[in-house]
Each structure stands twice: as C-alpha cells, then as structure tokens.
Amino acid sequence: MRRYRIALVPGDGIGKEVIPAGRQVLEALAATTSGALEFAFESYPWGGDYYRAHGVMMPADGLEALKDKDAILFGSAGDPEIPDHITLWGLRLKICQGLDQYANVRPTRILPGIDAPLKRCRPEDLDWVIVRENTEGEYSGAGGRVHKGFPMEVAAEVSVMTRAGVERIQRYAFQLAASRPRKMLTVVTKSNAQRHAMVMWDEIAAEVARDFPGVKWDKEMVDAMTARMVNRPASLDTIVATNLHADILTDLAAALAGSLGIAPTANINPERVHPSMFEPIHGSAFDIMGKGTANPVATFWTAAMMLEHLGENEAARRLMKAVETVTANPKLHTRDLGGTATTADVTDAVCSAISAARTPLATA
Ligand code: NAD
Ligand code: MN
Q1: Within the chain, how many helices (H) and strands (E) appear?
Q2: 348: pLDDT strictly greater than 90
Q3: Which of 133, 209, 303, 355 has a CA positioned 20 to 30 A from the CA of residue 172?
Q4: 3-state DSSP call for residue 24?
Q5: In order of start, what are the domains of the chain with their CATH numbers?
C-alpha cells in the first residue's frame, strides 16, 4: 500500500472550486486501486480570507506544516480586495522560494477535442515542456523605492541571477530534454539587450550543454521566441527561460493549446529535500469565481503531474486518459472552451471515466 500525504492549499477565487474537484478525482482514482494507493489530504485555508482575519496570507509556521507532506496541490493566490503583489508574495512565492522549488515545469499539448487557435498546427506539432527558473532573476524581489511620493521618487526592480541558480535550472532542463523522445532544448535569452546577467545565462547554458552531448540545443531571443511558437511550433520541444520570460511564454503556450483553464504547472524541488507544489497555471479568475463554471482540467492535469512526481506513473496515465476522454466530448466543455458544462459536470465525468476504466493498479 502506498499512502501519500497531500497538502491542499486552495487559496482564492476559483482555486476554492478547482482544488476540491482535484481532490475528488484523486479519491476516485484511489478507489479503483483496492487499497494499493491512498491519499491523506490536509487542507490549509490560507489566502485572502485568512489575510482579512489575520493580516497575513499564511501563518508564520505555515512552511513548517508543509514540509512533512509528500506534495502540495495549490489553487491560486489573488483576491479582488487585496493588492496582487501582497497575495502573490505572501503565499505562492513564499512557498516556492521557501521550499526551494526552483524548477517550474509547464507542459503544453493540445488535448483531444480542444479547438486550438493556430489554424495550421496539428496536435502532434505542439508538444512542449517549458522550464521556468522559479526562485530568482527578475522576481528575486531585490530593489526598493526611494523618495516615496515625492516628484523625485525612484524605483529599482533588480534582476538577480546567480551562477548556482542559473546552472541548476539549465542542468534540470538539459536532463529533462534528454529524457524526452526528441532530445531537443531551446534556451530562451535576451543577451543582445540585457548584457550582463543574460550573457552569463548564455555562457552557463553552453557549459552545461557539454555534459549533454545527446541533446540538440539552440538559442532564441525571447521576442523572436513568441513568433516562433506561433509560426513554427513543431520546431520546439523542451524550452528553458528565466522567471519573467517563461512567465509570459507559458501564458502564450496555454492560449495556443486552447485555454488557460487547461494548463498545468509543477514547482519542483529536484533534490526532494522539500515537497514540490503542483498548481494550475491560471489565477483566481475574478470574473467567473463563485459561479461553478471554472474549468477543472488544468487542476486534473496538474494532479497527474503530481502523481508522476510521486512515481505513480500508471495512476498518472490513467488520470490523463480519463481527462482526454472527457475533453474529446464537446458537451463536457466549460465556457472557456465555448461550452456550457459546469465544474461539477466535468469533474463527475472524469470520475466516471476513471471508474469505467477500472483495472486494478499493480500493487508494489
Ligand atoms: P486569471 O488566470 O485569473 O484569469 C484570466 C482569464 O482566464 C479570465 O478571464 C478567467 O476567467 C480565465 N480563466 C482562468 N482560469 C480559468 C479556468 N480554470 N476556467 C475558465 N476560465 C479561466 O488571471 P488574472 O485575471 O490575470 O488574475 C486574477 C488574479 O489571480 C490576480 O489576483 C492575479 O494576481 C492572480 N493570479 C494568481 C496566480 C497564481 O497564484 N499562481 C496566477 C495568475 C494570476
Ligand atoms: Mn503568470
């Protein structure tokens, strides 16, 4: 029997709708394994409501509560009444940085039944994994404001890149590229205009590449990269980029695959000293929160990534198969995909698909 302790942090907005949906499908999956696989969920009510009650997004000992878990399933941080930089830094970045989850991994594929916007792109042309540096760079939080409120006010937002930080993310990306069938890596840069840190980024990529002779790699400027993603999607496979560059490219990738409501993310601590955190790419979606129409597919795919990370590859495969059975049916599309299905409709359908495909999981 394999039993995993999973922390649930739904956070705000539709996070509170999609994370319970994620729990429901994981429980449905466990129920088909005759006890071989079990989840012990613990839920943490952190986020905007917690902030209104306590003045902070999560308690001071919050990280400690997460440390003994096998993984974290996270919804979204972002509340209409609280500035975004407070919600983001007070919860999501606090966890990512505090648990040294330095590799943010975002796969993109066009799932069956999804009408993606690129007209000349076949589903097999778009199968990417974007690796985002997740602990430093443009989002290191270095900088400050001087002369606040006076005409001479100045603000500095300093991108900090360390040799160790760049090397470990490049190494992670090369390793991931080597493990995928096409063994291709594109290193995204901007070393023409950003002539210090991004030049070091390029140099370190070239150094790390020497350890991976089997990986075919190239370099692309981030601006040219947006055009290449749209015009030549099949020329890309694994991609590595800085915190800011990848933040933008992954939203583009999610849109090219059909919807933000589908795209998953893993925040990985590769050394497994600390638990990794799995979350849909999307945020709180203020415009649809509380309506029960959020697309839970991103969270389900995210849960599948969590299962893979835990070594439960067969369970992950079965979950994705159930998800793809459901996306293939336009009657089960939520509003973001042009349909009328609710979060509950999609969740129930995925649970049914899991139970219908019931074959006992191997007992290890
Ligand atoms: P968003 O992802 O919340 O929403 C963008 C658009 O996509 C909206 O129209 C929304 O309705 C739609 N959408 C997103 N997810 C969907 C889903 N699952 N199903 C259907 N439609 C979906 O991005 P935003 O509007 O820029 O941000 C809103 C809040 O969320 C802000 O406070 C922001 O800081 C926060 N945010 C948090 C995270 C995170 O915690 N990881 C990520 C992004 C945004
Ligand atoms: Mn983003």
Answers
A1: 12, 12
A2: yes
A3: 303
A4: helix
A5: 1-109+259-364 (3.40.718.10), 117-256 (3.40.718.10)
